[in-house]
Amino acid sequence: MDGRFYTVFTPFKRKWLASLDAGEYGTLPAAPRTQPELICPPDPVPEHVAGFDLDHGQPDQWPAGERHALRQLAQFVTERIRNYRRDRDHPACDGTSRLSPY
User: Cα dist. 29→23, 33, 77 in Å?
Assistant: First the structure.
Protein backbone atom coordinates (compact mmCIF):
# COMPACT_ATOMS: atom_id res chain seq x y z
CA MET A 1 0.00 0.00 0.00
CA ASP A 2 1.02 3.57 -0.46
CA GLY A 3 -0.17 4.79 2.95
CA ARG A 4 -3.73 5.55 1.95
CA PHE A 5 -6.82 4.16 3.65
CA TYR A 6 -8.51 1.08 2.26
CA THR A 7 -11.68 1.87 0.36
CA VAL A 8 -12.98 -1.72 0.09
CA PHE A 9 -12.86 -4.54 2.59
CA THR A 10 -11.26 -7.40 0.62
CA PRO A 11 -7.75 -5.90 0.25
CA PHE A 12 -7.80 -4.95 3.94
CA LYS A 13 -8.80 -8.49 4.89
CA ARG A 14 -6.05 -10.03 2.74
CA LYS A 15 -3.40 -7.74 4.25
CA TRP A 16 -4.64 -8.46 7.80
CA LEU A 17 -4.63 -12.24 7.26
CA ALA A 18 -1.15 -12.05 5.72
CA SER A 19 0.15 -10.19 8.77
CA LEU A 20 -1.35 -12.87 11.02
CA ASP A 21 0.26 -15.62 8.96
CA ALA A 22 3.62 -13.82 9.13
CA GLY A 23 3.47 -13.95 12.91
CA GLU A 24 3.45 -10.20 13.36
CA TYR A 25 0.86 -10.51 16.10
CA GLY A 26 0.86 -12.96 18.98
CA THR A 27 -1.41 -13.72 21.83
CA LEU A 28 -1.08 -11.98 25.15
CA PRO A 29 -0.36 -13.99 28.28
CA ALA A 30 -3.37 -14.85 30.38
CA ALA A 31 -4.17 -12.38 33.11
CA PRO A 32 -3.47 -13.65 36.61
CA ARG A 33 -6.51 -14.92 38.47
CA THR A 34 -7.60 -12.67 41.27
CA GLN A 35 -10.49 -12.56 43.67
CA PRO A 36 -12.74 -9.52 43.41
CA GLU A 37 -12.11 -7.07 46.19
CA LEU A 38 -15.21 -6.02 48.09
CA ILE A 39 -15.05 -2.37 48.99
CA CYS A 40 -17.75 -2.75 51.61
CA PRO A 41 -19.73 -5.74 52.85
CA PRO A 42 -22.97 -6.43 50.99
CA ASP A 43 -26.17 -5.08 52.49
CA PRO A 44 -28.57 -7.63 53.94
CA VAL A 45 -31.72 -8.33 51.93
CA PRO A 46 -34.54 -6.28 53.49
CA GLU A 47 -37.77 -7.92 54.57
CA HIS A 48 -39.79 -4.94 53.32
CA VAL A 49 -39.13 -2.21 50.75
CA ALA A 50 -41.15 0.98 50.96
CA GLY A 51 -43.29 1.58 47.88
CA PHE A 52 -43.57 -2.11 47.02
CA ASP A 53 -46.59 -2.93 49.14
CA LEU A 54 -48.82 -3.99 46.27
CA ASP A 55 -50.10 -7.53 46.05
CA HIS A 56 -48.44 -9.00 42.96
CA GLY A 57 -50.19 -12.33 43.15
CA GLN A 58 -50.05 -15.23 45.49
CA PRO A 59 -48.44 -18.61 44.82
CA ASP A 60 -51.93 -20.07 44.47
CA GLN A 61 -52.71 -17.74 41.56
CA TRP A 62 -51.82 -20.58 39.19
CA PRO A 63 -53.15 -23.72 40.89
CA ALA A 64 -51.63 -26.81 39.32
CA GLY A 65 -53.33 -29.66 37.55
CA GLU A 66 -55.42 -30.56 34.55
CA ARG A 67 -58.69 -29.77 36.38
CA HIS A 68 -57.59 -26.17 36.95
CA ALA A 69 -56.34 -25.84 33.37
CA LEU A 70 -59.68 -27.03 32.00
CA ARG A 71 -61.50 -24.60 34.29
CA GLN A 72 -59.29 -21.76 33.04
CA LEU A 73 -59.96 -22.75 29.42
CA ALA A 74 -63.70 -22.94 29.99
CA GLN A 75 -63.72 -19.52 31.62
CA PHE A 76 -61.78 -18.04 28.70
CA VAL A 77 -64.11 -19.59 26.12
CA THR A 78 -67.28 -18.44 27.85
CA GLU A 79 -66.15 -14.98 29.00
CA ARG A 80 -63.25 -13.58 27.00
CA ILE A 81 -62.71 -15.34 23.68
CA ARG A 82 -65.15 -13.11 21.76
CA ASN A 83 -62.95 -10.07 22.49
CA TYR A 84 -59.60 -11.86 22.23
CA ARG A 85 -58.55 -10.19 18.95
CA ARG A 86 -59.28 -6.75 20.39
CA ASP A 87 -57.95 -7.24 23.96
CA ARG A 88 -54.98 -9.62 23.63
CA ASP A 89 -52.34 -6.91 23.15
CA HIS A 90 -53.54 -4.63 25.93
CA PRO A 91 -52.04 -5.52 29.33
CA ALA A 92 -54.77 -3.58 31.16
CA CYS A 93 -57.44 -5.88 29.65
CA ASP A 94 -58.01 -9.42 30.85
CA GLY A 95 -57.96 -10.59 27.25
CA THR A 96 -55.86 -13.74 27.12
CA SER A 97 -56.52 -17.33 28.14
CA ARG A 98 -53.79 -17.48 30.83
CA LEU A 99 -53.11 -21.06 29.80
CA SER A 100 -49.32 -20.66 29.43
CA PRO A 101 -48.52 -21.95 32.94
CA TYR A 102 -50.44 -25.12 32.18
Answer: 16, 12, 64
| Alpha carbons 6 and 16: distance in angstroms, whole number | 12
pTM for this prediction: 0.42
Residue 71's φ and ψ, nearest 5 degrees, are: -65, -40
Burial class (CB in 10 A: 0-12, 13-18, 19+), 80: middle
Task: Please name the residues in contact with 19: beta carbons below 8 A apart, sequence gap of 6 or more.
Answer: 25
Per-residue pLDDT tens for 25-41? 778 888 888 887 766 76
